[in-house]
Amino acid sequence: MHRPTVLVVDDEPLNLAVLSKLLNPQYRVLGARSAASALALLSSELPDLILLDIMMPEVDGYAMLAKLKADPRTCELPVIFVTALGAEQDEERGFAEGAVDYIVKPIKPAVALARVRTQLELKRSRDRLADQNSWLEAEVARRTHESLIAQDLTLCALAELAETRDNETGNHILRTQGYVEALARQLQPLSGFAEELNEAQLLRIVKAAPMHDIGKIGIQDHILLKPGRLTPEEFEIMKTHARIGGQAIERALSKVRQMHQAGGDDDSQPLPESIRFLEVARTIANHHHERWDGSGYPDGLSGTAIPLAARLMALADVFDALTMRRVYKEPWPVEKAIAHIEAEAGKHFDPTIVAAFVNIQAEFRAIAARLSD
Fold first, then answer.
1. In the chain, where does the domain assigned CATH 1.10.3210.10 lie?
2. Residues in domain HD-GYP (predicted)?
3. pTM (2 d.p.)
4. Contact 184, 206 (CB under 8 A)
C-alpha cells in the first residue's frame, strides 16, 4: 500500500525528531533543517505534504512558501505551518501566505495527526479529480478528433459524388485542396493576410475546398457529361452550378444555425466550428468563378470584394483544369499554364495570389505529380 510522503522542515533537530517519530508509523517522512536543503530535496522528489517551520535562519518559512508558490512544480503542494508563533495575527498571516493549515508548538500529537491526515485526504481527492479531468479531456479530444475525421470523410465522399457526375476525378479534389493550402501558407505571413489566414481560418478554407463544385450535382447529365465544348446556352446553364452549390450549403447552414439557437447557446459565445466551416464552404462554392476584374459569375464581384477563400480556389481550380487531361482537351504543359496564370494577374486572378503562386510553382508541380490521374 502506498504510504504518503511528508517533508518536515525545521532548523531544530529536536523538533524534527519529535515530528518524525509521530508521523513515521503511518507516513514516509523526509527531513530538512533549512529552506535551502528542503528546496534542493524538492528538485528530485515531491512529497505529498510539507510541514514547515516559520522561524528559520537565512530563509524563513514565509520566504520558502513564496518560492514554492512561484514554482509550477511545487505550487500545488499543501503546506502546514508548524511554529511557535501563536498570536492570532501570525495565524492569519500564515493562511494569507498560502498555508493550508497552522499548527502551534508545542504540538498536540492527536491534533497534529488529525490535521495531517485531513490535508493528505484532501490532496488525494484533488489528485483523483485532476486525473479524472485529464482523462475526460483526453476522451473529449479523442472523440472530437474521431468526429472531425468522420466529418472530413463524409464531406470528401459528398464532393467526390459530385465529381463522379463530371468528367473529372476524385484526385481533382485532392489536388485543388493541396494547391489552396500551399497558396494560403505562402500568403499567411504577408501583411494584410495574417487576420484572414489565421491558423483556424486557414484550416477551415482547406477543409472546405473539396466542396467548391458541389453544385454540379444539380446540372443535367447531357450538359455536365458532354464530350466536347458547350454551346453558349449550355455554358449559361453550367454556370449555375456555383449558385446551386452556394444555396445548397446555405440551406444546410440555416439548419445548423437553427439547431444552435434551439440549443439555447449564448449568442455572445464564439460560433460553433460547424457554422464557421459551412460559411467558408458556401463562400467557395458560390464565388470561385468570380474574376478579379469583375467579369466572372455568379455575382460579378471584383477585387477584394471576392472573398479570399474563393480567390484562392479560383487559381487552384484553373491551374488544375489547364494541366490535367479532359475529354475536350489535352493537358497543357505546366510552363504554359504558369505563363497563362501570370498573364491573367489583375484580370482573372488576384495579383498577390499570382505572385505567391509563382514563388511556389515547384510545390504545385510536386502536388500535381503526386496526385496525377
1. 165-370
2. 147-373
3. 0.60
4. yes
